[in-house]
Design brief:
alpha/beta; about 250 residues; 6-stranded parallel β-sheet; binds ligand PTJ; Rossmann fold
Protein backbone atom coordinates (compact mmCIF):
# COMPACT_ATOMS: atom_id res chain seq x y z
CA UNK A 1 0.00 0.00 0.00
CA UNK A 2 1.31 3.46 -0.91
CA UNK A 3 2.11 5.82 1.99
CA UNK A 4 1.45 8.91 -0.13
CA UNK A 5 -2.09 10.30 0.47
CA UNK A 6 -4.49 10.69 -2.47
CA UNK A 7 -4.57 14.45 -1.91
CA UNK A 8 -0.82 14.75 -2.60
CA UNK A 9 -0.18 16.78 -5.81
CA UNK A 10 1.92 13.98 -7.36
CA UNK A 11 -0.84 11.44 -6.81
CA UNK A 12 -3.43 13.87 -8.15
CA UNK A 13 -1.28 14.35 -11.25
CA UNK A 14 -1.20 10.57 -11.81
CA UNK A 15 -5.00 10.40 -11.41
CA UNK A 16 -5.41 13.17 -14.02
CA UNK A 17 -3.11 11.22 -16.35
CA UNK A 18 -5.31 8.16 -15.85
CA UNK A 19 -8.39 10.19 -16.85
CA UNK A 20 -6.70 11.15 -20.09
CA UNK A 21 -5.60 7.59 -20.86
CA UNK A 22 -9.16 6.38 -20.16
CA UNK A 23 -10.41 9.14 -22.49
CA UNK A 24 -8.02 7.90 -25.15
CA UNK A 25 -9.25 4.31 -24.75
CA UNK A 26 -12.85 5.57 -25.03
CA UNK A 27 -12.07 7.34 -28.32
CA UNK A 28 -12.28 10.91 -27.00
CA UNK A 29 -8.62 11.92 -27.10
CA UNK A 30 -6.35 12.14 -30.15
CA UNK A 31 -2.95 10.42 -29.98
CA UNK A 32 -1.43 13.88 -30.15
CA UNK A 33 -3.54 14.80 -27.13
CA UNK A 34 -1.46 12.42 -25.01
CA UNK A 35 1.68 14.29 -26.05
CA UNK A 36 0.05 17.65 -25.32
CA UNK A 37 -0.85 16.35 -21.86
CA UNK A 38 2.74 15.27 -21.19
CA UNK A 39 3.91 18.77 -22.05
CA UNK A 40 1.29 20.16 -19.71
CA UNK A 41 2.42 17.84 -16.89
CA UNK A 42 5.98 19.14 -17.17
CA UNK A 43 4.81 22.73 -16.81
CA UNK A 44 2.45 21.79 -13.99
CA UNK A 45 5.43 20.31 -12.12
CA UNK A 46 7.26 23.64 -12.51
CA UNK A 47 4.19 25.49 -11.19
CA UNK A 48 4.16 23.29 -8.08
CA UNK A 49 0.95 21.52 -9.22
CA UNK A 50 -1.19 24.19 -7.57
CA UNK A 51 -3.24 27.23 -8.51
CA UNK A 52 -0.89 30.16 -8.11
CA UNK A 53 -1.66 33.83 -7.44
CA UNK A 54 -1.37 34.84 -11.10
CA UNK A 55 -3.86 32.12 -12.11
CA UNK A 56 -6.32 33.41 -9.48
CA UNK A 57 -5.98 36.94 -10.88
CA UNK A 58 -6.59 35.69 -14.43
CA UNK A 59 -9.59 33.64 -13.27
CA UNK A 60 -11.16 36.74 -11.73
CA UNK A 61 -10.63 38.76 -14.93
CA UNK A 62 -11.96 35.86 -17.03
CA UNK A 63 -15.10 35.56 -14.90
CA UNK A 64 -15.79 39.30 -15.21
CA UNK A 65 -15.20 39.14 -18.97
CA UNK A 66 -17.57 36.18 -19.37
CA UNK A 67 -20.29 37.93 -17.34
CA UNK A 68 -19.92 41.01 -19.56
CA UNK A 69 -20.19 38.96 -22.78
CA UNK A 70 -23.23 38.97 -25.07
CA UNK A 71 -22.45 35.51 -26.42
CA UNK A 72 -19.72 33.54 -24.61
CA UNK A 73 -18.81 30.17 -26.14
CA UNK A 74 -16.67 27.38 -24.66
CA UNK A 75 -14.67 25.45 -27.26
CA UNK A 76 -14.27 21.77 -26.33
CA UNK A 77 -11.62 19.41 -27.72
CA UNK A 78 -10.75 15.79 -26.96
CA UNK A 79 -8.52 16.47 -23.94
CA UNK A 80 -11.09 18.71 -22.28
CA UNK A 81 -13.88 16.21 -22.85
CA UNK A 82 -11.76 13.54 -21.15
CA UNK A 83 -10.50 15.70 -18.28
CA UNK A 84 -13.44 17.85 -17.21
CA UNK A 85 -16.78 17.35 -19.00
CA UNK A 86 -18.85 18.00 -15.86
CA UNK A 87 -16.87 21.14 -15.06
CA UNK A 88 -17.53 22.43 -18.61
CA UNK A 89 -21.27 21.91 -18.19
CA UNK A 90 -21.19 23.63 -14.78
CA UNK A 91 -19.40 26.65 -16.28
CA UNK A 92 -21.85 26.79 -19.19
CA UNK A 93 -24.87 26.62 -16.87
CA UNK A 94 -23.55 29.30 -14.52
CA UNK A 95 -22.35 31.72 -17.17
CA UNK A 96 -24.99 30.99 -19.89
CA UNK A 97 -22.11 30.19 -22.25
CA UNK A 98 -22.70 27.88 -25.20
CA UNK A 99 -20.68 24.72 -25.69
CA UNK A 100 -19.14 23.97 -29.09
CA UNK A 101 -17.06 20.94 -30.03
CA UNK A 102 -14.12 22.00 -32.16
CA UNK A 103 -11.25 19.66 -32.97
CA UNK A 104 -7.75 20.22 -34.24
CA UNK A 105 -7.50 16.67 -35.55
CA UNK A 106 -10.89 16.35 -37.24
CA UNK A 107 -12.53 12.97 -36.79
CA UNK A 108 -16.31 12.52 -36.96
CA UNK A 109 -16.34 9.40 -34.81
CA UNK A 110 -14.32 11.08 -32.08
CA UNK A 111 -16.58 14.13 -32.27
CA UNK A 112 -19.64 11.94 -31.67
CA UNK A 113 -17.96 10.29 -28.65
CA UNK A 114 -17.19 13.75 -27.23
CA UNK A 115 -20.82 14.84 -27.75
CA UNK A 116 -22.01 11.69 -25.99
CA UNK A 117 -19.74 12.34 -23.01
CA UNK A 118 -20.87 15.97 -22.73
CA UNK A 119 -24.53 14.92 -22.89
CA UNK A 120 -23.93 12.30 -20.21
CA UNK A 121 -22.42 15.08 -18.10
CA UNK A 122 -25.61 17.12 -18.44
CA UNK A 123 -25.07 19.31 -21.54
CA UNK A 124 -28.36 20.17 -23.24
CA UNK A 125 -27.22 21.94 -26.39
CA UNK A 126 -23.92 21.21 -28.12
CA UNK A 127 -22.87 23.22 -31.15
CA UNK A 128 -20.40 22.26 -33.86
CA UNK A 129 -22.23 19.12 -34.89
CA UNK A 130 -24.63 20.35 -37.58
CA UNK A 131 -22.85 20.63 -40.95
CA UNK A 132 -25.60 22.92 -42.27
CA UNK A 133 -24.58 25.48 -39.67
CA UNK A 134 -20.83 25.28 -40.35
CA UNK A 135 -18.79 28.17 -41.60
CA UNK A 136 -15.06 28.92 -41.57
CA UNK A 137 -12.74 31.29 -39.75
CA UNK A 138 -10.49 33.03 -42.24
CA UNK A 139 -6.71 32.80 -42.17
CA UNK A 140 -6.58 29.28 -40.73
CA UNK A 141 -5.58 25.98 -42.38
CA UNK A 142 -6.38 23.45 -39.65
CA UNK A 143 -9.74 21.75 -39.08
CA UNK A 144 -10.28 24.22 -36.28
CA UNK A 145 -11.27 26.78 -38.92
CA UNK A 146 -14.68 25.04 -39.18
CA UNK A 147 -16.97 26.69 -36.63
CA UNK A 148 -20.68 26.96 -35.92
CA UNK A 149 -22.49 30.04 -37.29
CA UNK A 150 -24.46 30.35 -34.04
CA UNK A 151 -21.48 29.55 -31.81
CA UNK A 152 -17.83 30.55 -32.11
CA UNK A 153 -18.48 32.45 -35.36
CA UNK A 154 -21.01 34.75 -33.67
CA UNK A 155 -19.38 34.84 -30.21
CA UNK A 156 -17.83 37.95 -28.71
CA UNK A 157 -15.94 35.95 -26.05
CA UNK A 158 -14.45 32.52 -26.76
CA UNK A 159 -13.05 30.27 -24.02
CA UNK A 160 -10.44 27.98 -25.51
CA UNK A 161 -8.75 25.52 -23.15
CA UNK A 162 -5.64 23.81 -24.60
CA UNK A 163 -5.66 25.75 -27.82
CA UNK A 164 -3.21 26.02 -30.71
CA UNK A 165 -1.56 29.34 -31.42
CA UNK A 166 -2.82 29.68 -34.99
CA UNK A 167 -6.48 29.58 -34.03
CA UNK A 168 -5.99 31.92 -31.09
CA UNK A 169 -4.52 34.42 -33.56
CA UNK A 170 -7.34 33.82 -36.06
CA UNK A 171 -9.94 34.37 -33.32
CA UNK A 172 -8.25 37.60 -32.26
CA UNK A 173 -8.10 38.78 -35.88
CA UNK A 174 -11.83 38.02 -36.13
CA UNK A 175 -12.38 40.47 -33.25
CA UNK A 176 -13.09 37.91 -30.52
CA UNK A 177 -11.96 38.22 -26.93
CA UNK A 178 -10.04 35.02 -26.17
CA UNK A 179 -9.75 33.40 -22.74
CA UNK A 180 -7.46 30.38 -22.52
CA UNK A 181 -6.26 27.82 -20.01
CA UNK A 182 -2.67 26.85 -20.78
CA UNK A 183 -0.04 25.45 -18.43
CA UNK A 184 2.70 26.81 -20.67
CA UNK A 185 3.00 30.57 -20.08
CA UNK A 186 5.32 30.85 -23.09
CA UNK A 187 3.06 29.22 -25.69
CA UNK A 188 1.80 31.34 -28.58
CA UNK A 189 -1.75 30.87 -27.30
CA UNK A 190 -0.77 32.13 -23.84
CA UNK A 191 0.98 35.11 -25.35
CA UNK A 192 -1.80 35.94 -27.83
CA UNK A 193 -4.95 35.46 -25.75
CA UNK A 194 -6.57 38.39 -23.94
CA UNK A 195 -6.70 36.45 -20.68
CA UNK A 196 -4.47 33.44 -19.98
CA UNK A 197 -5.13 31.20 -17.00
CA UNK A 198 -1.82 29.41 -16.41
CA UNK A 199 -3.18 26.47 -14.47
CA UNK A 200 -4.34 22.92 -14.98
CA UNK A 201 -7.88 22.93 -16.43
CA UNK A 202 -8.78 20.23 -13.91
CA UNK A 203 -8.13 22.68 -11.05
CA UNK A 204 -9.08 25.97 -12.68
CA UNK A 205 -12.35 25.24 -14.48
CA UNK A 206 -14.47 24.93 -11.32
CA UNK A 207 -12.67 27.92 -9.79
CA UNK A 208 -13.80 29.94 -12.80
CA UNK A 209 -17.39 28.79 -12.29
CA UNK A 210 -17.27 29.67 -8.58
CA UNK A 211 -15.84 33.11 -9.41
CA UNK A 212 -18.56 33.70 -12.04
CA UNK A 213 -21.14 32.93 -9.33
CA UNK A 214 -19.41 35.27 -6.84
CA UNK A 215 -19.25 38.16 -9.32
CA UNK A 216 -22.71 37.65 -10.80
CA UNK A 217 -24.28 40.27 -8.51
CA UNK A 218 -21.71 42.96 -9.40
CA UNK A 219 -22.73 45.76 -11.72
CA UNK A 220 -21.31 46.31 -15.20
CA UNK A 221 -18.98 49.12 -14.08
CA UNK A 222 -17.29 46.93 -11.47
CA UNK A 223 -16.90 44.04 -13.93
CA UNK A 224 -15.44 46.40 -16.55
CA UNK A 225 -12.94 47.72 -14.01
CA UNK A 226 -11.80 44.19 -13.12
CA UNK A 227 -11.16 43.50 -16.82
CA UNK A 228 -9.49 46.87 -17.42
CA UNK A 229 -7.14 46.45 -14.45
CA UNK A 230 -5.96 43.05 -15.68
CA UNK A 231 -2.79 43.06 -17.81
CA UNK A 232 -2.17 39.69 -19.45
CA UNK A 233 1.45 40.35 -20.43
CA UNK A 234 2.33 41.48 -16.90
CA UNK A 235 0.49 38.54 -15.38
CA UNK A 236 2.44 36.12 -17.60
CA UNK A 237 5.75 37.74 -16.59
CA UNK A 238 4.71 37.45 -12.94
CA UNK A 239 3.90 33.80 -13.56
CA UNK A 240 7.48 33.16 -14.76
CA UNK A 241 8.71 34.75 -11.53
CA UNK A 242 6.36 32.45 -9.57
CA UNK A 243 7.90 29.44 -11.34
CA UNK A 244 11.43 30.67 -10.59
CA UNK A 245 10.61 31.27 -6.91
CA UNK A 246 8.90 27.92 -6.66
CA UNK A 247 11.94 26.11 -8.11
CA UNK A 248 14.34 28.04 -5.88
CA UNK A 249 12.29 27.06 -2.83
CA UNK A 250 12.38 23.43 -3.85
CA UNK A 251 16.15 23.49 -4.35
CA UNK A 252 16.57 24.82 -0.82
CA UNK A 253 14.26 22.15 0.63
CA UNK A 254 16.06 19.31 -1.18
O1 LIG B 1 -8.81 17.01 -29.60
P1 LIG B 1 -8.13 17.83 -30.65
O2 LIG B 1 -8.07 17.15 -31.99
O3 LIG B 1 -8.73 19.22 -30.79
O4 LIG B 1 -6.60 18.06 -30.20
C1 LIG B 1 -6.29 18.65 -28.98
C2 LIG B 1 -4.79 18.91 -28.77
C3 LIG B 1 -4.57 19.21 -27.29
C4 LIG B 1 -4.01 17.66 -29.18
C5 LIG B 1 -4.36 20.08 -29.63
O5 LIG B 1 -5.12 21.21 -29.26
C6 LIG B 1 -2.89 20.40 -29.50
O6 LIG B 1 -2.04 19.86 -30.21
O7 LIG B 1 -2.59 21.30 -28.55
P2 LIG B 1 -1.09 21.86 -28.34
O8 LIG B 1 -0.76 22.81 -29.44
O9 LIG B 1 -0.16 20.74 -28.03
O10 LIG B 1 -1.27 22.75 -27.04
C7 LIG B 1 -1.70 22.24 -25.85
C8 LIG B 1 -1.27 23.21 -24.73
O11 LIG B 1 -2.04 22.90 -23.59
C9 LIG B 1 0.20 23.07 -24.35
O12 LIG B 1 0.78 24.36 -24.17
C10 LIG B 1 0.17 22.33 -22.98
O13 LIG B 1 1.17 22.76 -22.12
C11 LIG B 1 -1.19 22.76 -22.45
N1 LIG B 1 -1.84 21.77 -21.58
C12 LIG B 1 -1.78 20.41 -21.65
N2 LIG B 1 -2.54 19.83 -20.70
C13 LIG B 1 -3.10 20.84 -20.00
C14 LIG B 1 -2.68 22.09 -20.56
N3 LIG B 1 -3.08 23.26 -20.10
C15 LIG B 1 -3.95 23.26 -19.04
N4 LIG B 1 -4.40 22.12 -18.46
C16 LIG B 1 -4.00 20.89 -18.90
N5 LIG B 1 -4.45 19.77 -18.32
Amino acid sequence: MSLIPKSHPRVKSLLIREKLVTGFDQGLVAKEGLLAHGRGEAFDYLLGEKTNKTAKLAIKAAAAQILLADLPVISVNGNIAALCPKEIVRLANTSRAKIEVNLFYANEKRKQSIVKTLKKSGAKEILGTNHNLSTTLSGLDSARRVVDKNGIFAADVVIVPLEDGDRTMALRRAGKIVITFDLNPLSRTSQTANITIVDNVTRAMDLLTITCKKLSNKNKKILEKIVKDFNNKKNLSDNIIEIRDNLTRRLHIA
